[in-house]
Amino acid sequence: MGARGPSVLDNALTHYYDRVQTALHRVAESRRADARKDFSPGPLLTPPTDRFRAYVSVSGLAATEAGEHHGVRLTLLDLMRNPGTRTTKTMASLVIVARAAHHVRETGERLMLLTPSSANKATALRDAVLRAVDHGLVTRDGLRVACVVPEESAHKVWRSRLSDDPELRRRNPVLVHAGSGAAVKALAGEAAGDAAARIRHLTGVRVWHTLDLDNYRAADTVRAYFEDEYLPPRDGRVRWHSHAVSSAFGLLGHHLGTRLLAREKIGSGAARPSPGYLLVQHLATPDMVLGLHRDGGLPAYGLDRGSGLFTQAANPRFPAAADDPSESIDPTFYTKTPATAPAMSEIVRTQGGGGLVVSRHECLARYARVRALVAPAGIQLPSDPARLREWSLVMVVTGTLLAVERGLVEADEVVVHGSGSYTADDFAPLPAAALRPVGSVTDVADALHAAAAAR
Length: 455
Description:
Elements: E1 7-9, H1 12-15, H2 17-32, H3 50-55, E2 61-69, E3 72-78, H4 89-107, E4 110-116, H5 120-134, E5 143-150, H6 161-164, H7 166-171, E6 174-177, H8 181-203, E7 205-209, H9 213-217, H10 222-230, E8 239-244, H11 249-264, E9 276-282, H12 287-292, E10 302-303, E11 310-311, E12 321-322, H13 341-351, E13 353-358, H14 360-365, H15 367-374, E14 388-390, H16 392-405, E15 413-418, E16 422-423, E17 435-437, H17 441-453
Parallel strand pairs: 3-15, 4-5, 4-7, 5-6, 6-17, 8-9, 8-15, 9-13
Antiparallel strand pairs: 1-2, 2-3, 10-11, 11-12, 14-16
Helix pairs in contact: 4-5, 8-17, 10-11
């Protein structure tokens, strides 16, 4: 497999500002038709001033050709170029915070963002809030962020001045719950109701529960705009996009971008064919793959006494060998039966694609190959995979290679979305003083009130 150096766009949110704003208006229109939706500050971004451009300067993307694998051309799309997060969550977080900052400046109403997170959303939103304060888009009292994370993945939230500065720490809490990811989502969702209304009444700070597909897919249209400009598909060639997914927010954003581009190009003769999507998951949460391929179902694994591995040969969309048939490779992927599954499944059935589940054993068996494949993109995986703290990139590359080898890719080329990769050397975990344990909605409400009241 040969490779060519990357094509780089350093500030995508400035470059595609008008298009992202159009996407935000588009999702706002659909939101107005749904009376069940909670508070949103509206679709308007901060105006594209020099301060805004500096604030979003970490919104870079890059594409690197990675040669062919069994006749299928591979391209790596690097969505991890912010050194303060190393994940794709930066793009949506910058947009969410820019909308919040505009609301604060226009209305004078102070906001507190609230999100459940396995870790990466928390790190990215906290990074975006700190950048907004540092670049003068908003004050530390005007905008705050509270994150609720499972105890099992709290070690993945990055330390920053938001945790080290005592005043910023009081305003921007990280709440840790001993339960599952589903329990964390439930806690945050319930706190966003009556408790948030009381906090607004007592402090004047309004809580915005940001975990909504609409807040992510508009920002992720940037992937489609970049592809259209830098990676135009060759005539007659079928293209798929692969992504390690939990709820597939990123691919749904890319899909929205392709639809908006098609609308732009009506009558021009320049419309692109609709791509297929390959979803990669792990054994702990394979629901989207199972939903796409109901005929195969979850295979029965048997213990191979010779290797000590659990093996199966009935379903090529599942690992042939695994250390544990229900293993979690990375707690990033914690969502079971995601609400986005029906929409993503319909897109795949209409446009093409499929799903594949990978095991840690498979990722490790191909680790050296994956490491060599991503190196020309400037991505340095550690020689020792035990140093990895974010496995998304390794999962998606491994899954793409396996899908091609198993004849599951009905495409001439695959764009591999690199959505996250970092090591123990890239960050410091939050100190204990920056973590507040919570066990109930009342605990979350008390923590939010304390953060909102901090002055």
